[in-house]
# Entry
Amino acid sequence: MKWARMAAIIFLLTVAGACLLANFVAPASYAYQFREEPDAAVSRHHPLGTDDLGRDRFSRLLYGTRVSLLLAPAAAVLASLLGLLIGGLAGFAGGWTERLVMSATDLFLSLPWLFLLLTVRAVLPLNVSPILSVTITFALLGCLGWAGAARMICADARSVRESEFVLLARASGNSGFRLLWRHVLPNLRPIALAQFWISIPVFIITEANLGMLGLGISEPLPSWGSLLRELQSYTAITGQPVQFVPLILFIAVIGSFHLVLHDEELTV
Amino acid sequence: MKKILVFQLLIFALASSAFAQSGGELRFVLHSEPKTFNPLLTEDDSSESVRYMTGGVLVRVNRLTQQVEPELAKSWKVSKDGRTISFELRSGLRFSDGTPFSADDVAFTMKQLMDPALHSPTGDMFRSGTGQVQVNVSSQTRVSITFSAPLADIVRPFDQVAIMSAKSPQKEMAVLGPFYVAENKAGEYLILKRNPYYWKHDGQGRQLPYFDSVRLDILQSQDTEILRLLRGEIDFINSLSPDYYDKIEAENPALVHDAGVSLDSEFMWFNQVPSAPIPDYKKAWFRSTNFRRAISEAINRQDMARIVFKGHAQPAVGVVSPANKFWFNSQLHAHPFDQKSALARLNQDGFVLQDGILKDRDGHVVEFSIVTNSNKNRERMATLIQQDLSGIGIKLNVVTLDFPSLIDRMTNSYNYEACLLGFVNDDLDPNSEMNVWLSSSENHQWNPKQKTPATPWEAQIDKLMREQASTLDQNKRKKYYDQVQQIVWEQEPFIYLINHDALSAVSTALVNAHPTILRPQVYWNIDELSLHQQVARNR
# Structure
């Protein structure tokens, strides 16, 4: 599997490089509308054609990837860390602490996010730049997305707490923070990583849907979410095949990350 | 010309009855469940669809000719003072449950309709004054209705008043239209069956409607609706977006119909509410006619029609769509795309373009947001406007909001700067727009509920709208309303952008379908629709 890992690393570096150098690589501005060429086919000027407003698809993909590749994993890290901290502590402590924290988690899970996000939108000013809007969105997703992860991690922490090696560690005089830091948390890493990977596509899709609420990424800034949203309708199925490039790239990037980190996990 | 049209219609009627096939089931989709079956309380599209197919009305607006035609009433007469209308009714008619129809039912319906406690949206069209409505039944076939104040167009609104039975135990479920509601599976489907007592017959003496039943599936997704049409599971789609139209046309050109420019318009406006929580310098921009005219001229409407609506639209001229043949002011033309002229207008108000950025006379950078609902076409329109305005140095932020939040900002908090929305128009008469144009009205969106008109031109619009509403001479009314259109064209409190076409898709198996621009576009003549013999036999 070494070659696969190498290929994944090269692919990710290429994507990251292209995105970081988007200002030089992109054939046009992501926002500029070539109004005489809406829905144009692939050409030398437009390597992936143009969208329905005549904007260069390739440029939009580069800039959109930059936004999502940076912010969705950042939100996933935030959500997973919060989940690890809250779920790990609750599971490790057990007893009434666990019951109390898990009740609070259940309450958080039952909150209608939609209304919360609507309230946030109502509080935010309307003249927000697209960059600030997208940052707020992903920060919100990170802050709200920890509860599911916390439940999973808590269950795992409970079984670690009751495992024989922890009993042994306790018998050797380890307790409190040292026990948590040295023995429990390292064993929760796989599930925290799994939660991290699950969160990334969820956050990207959620961001696309949040556009309808005035949150998310506002025009003309692209993101994977907004590019994938174009594929939601029947018209996309019979449209140009190049429309599916964002979806393919999205799957390839997530798959490559998984491949690289999975191998790292095996070598730990 | 008129004779030719009448002749064509006659040929069309004879030909359609000759080829019509009785029996079978008509199938199409409603995008939501009907909220009520009470015809006096309909507000939503689905309830209105059911009302149209089941309700019997005294007069009907022919959706093809836009003229009023007799239905349950054989004839009618309007008094000179415009307050009273007398109907001569057809005799021997029955409701769908067999209950006889008489003038008492019309009186009962009118009393229900005008009952303030019922809050009937249909009744609002008749509320011209504060007094009671008098209904006088002189015989089983004669009834006269007297309103407390004159109504400029007293006949046309009766197109939407479905007559209810005063005596039937089935109450509002007993109907006089071509179909009655036979089965309602909440959230799934609705079955309408042929009314056995329906009074109309075709040219060959066969009782209408031709269909035995109508199946209405409740389905939100238009994607699924289109796939079902292409598979032959439904017979038509009443209203299509341009994207879908082009896709269906690419697969089967015989299915799609572009009936031409509709009455609906897309427009934007600036918030001019004095108490709105926006900076004073922005309020000053928005109140300036030069600023609004400049924005209007900086928007390329032709591009909008070509790119967003795929050519199935035309630049809007103003208040009235050119589809409204009588009321449209033909002296007016759509504002041309001219960014030089736009900048000249802005210069008059002290705006200066510096390094590609427009600033007002106090040095404020011209930047504002435009809110719209999450509608794909409106989002695209806003994005085009964004690029157009950047051409004169204006930064526009596009914000899409869910509809309830948008309405709350428009009507309660007034916390927005500009708004892009559409206007769905079913009524040809300007009286239906009184609630938009009167400065005291709640729907006077740019600055609602004014105690006294904020500007001289709004006072002038108030005066003209009231005058046209209290005049019975149609030509005089037209003159007043032409002036209203002229003022709105000059002042642009609403910047009209686009009038889009009425697009629909109809199965080739459906006979007698002639989609129109007026709702309901495809099934306006539902009692005359039928299926080709082969298809009908298989259903």
